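Q: What changes when adenosine-5'-triphosphate is included in the input?
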Amino acid sequence: MILKAENLSHRYSRAWAIRDINIEIAEHGIVGLLGSNGAGKSTTMNIICGTLNQTEGEVFINGINKRKNPEAVKREIGFLPQQAPLYTDLTIDEFLVFSAELRLIDKKQIKKAVEEVKDKCGLSHISSRLIKNLSGGYRQRVGIAQAIIHKPKLVVMDEPTNGLDPNQIIEARKLIKEIAREHTVLLSSHILSEINLLCRDIIMIESGRIVFSDTMDAFNNYTKANAILVKFDNPPSKEALLQIPGVESVEFLNPSQVRIHYNGDEEMNARLINASAQQGWKLREIGQDKGLLDDVFKQLSSQSNH
Ligand SMILES: Nc1ncnc2c1ncn2[C@@H]1O[C@H](COP(=O)(O)OP(=O)(O)OP(=O)(O)O)[C@@H](O)[C@H]1O
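A: The predicted holo structure follows.
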């Protein structure tokens, strides 16, 4: 177990920001921490990485208790906070040497570690540039480089693609996937599709509590909207649709568009297409109704208030 967080709670002055957070992460792959703004993602990550001390609970990294042995734990962790901690008046080379020294990498190994990490993060060709002259995407790469320079087991990234433009996001995702081949990655986002694209497991946090924690596949099954949106040029009656096996209810959104709730049967689309062809309903559009995902979110989020 690379990370184990037990009953973590944190209070800033009076209000509890997180409550009873339990997380277990086995080695390798990318785990996503999903939650809306203020849900408690940064607080959780700052505690895991040792930049904030929890009010209650324990964190173990690779079996080592953070409270009892913070230095040993920090050796196993790389952290990219929401605001990358960059000295912008330094060049990339200078900054990475400085980061390596902070991480107590052996003096003789520093040059090699810097070259390796620059190569991994696609920074070698611009290494003598001042950080302040870099684009957002390259700054983020430098942020990632400082997080992995000491080859930690766990790399924690707080909203790593936030604020990047679409091309930079694609590049950053590629780099994160590469990094996950050698390190376990925990990253946060408030965007579900981001987590869906990158992560093997998902932990959803709302109002400081975990409301869902499982594989991405399990999450997608859970949130699968068992409804289909269909458009007909020659729409059938409600009764005719209800006769199709598996259809549970039928909602006409307008005279030609229907939302069909069904029992989750995978053959449902095929059955609708066949019925339409046989009975001349002239099916024009058919697709899964994703609008219901919002309802699932509300349902998951409201659990955190109980
Ligand atoms: N230094 C602080 N002092 C007091 N309250 C804080 C502090 N930092 C965060 N909070 C509160 O704790 C709660 C959790 O905040 P946190 O930053 O962990 O959430 P988040 O999920 O990371 O959100 P965001 O994506 O907006 O950063 C929020 O209600 C926030 O207002």
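Observations recorded in class: The chain is about 35% helix and 30% strand.
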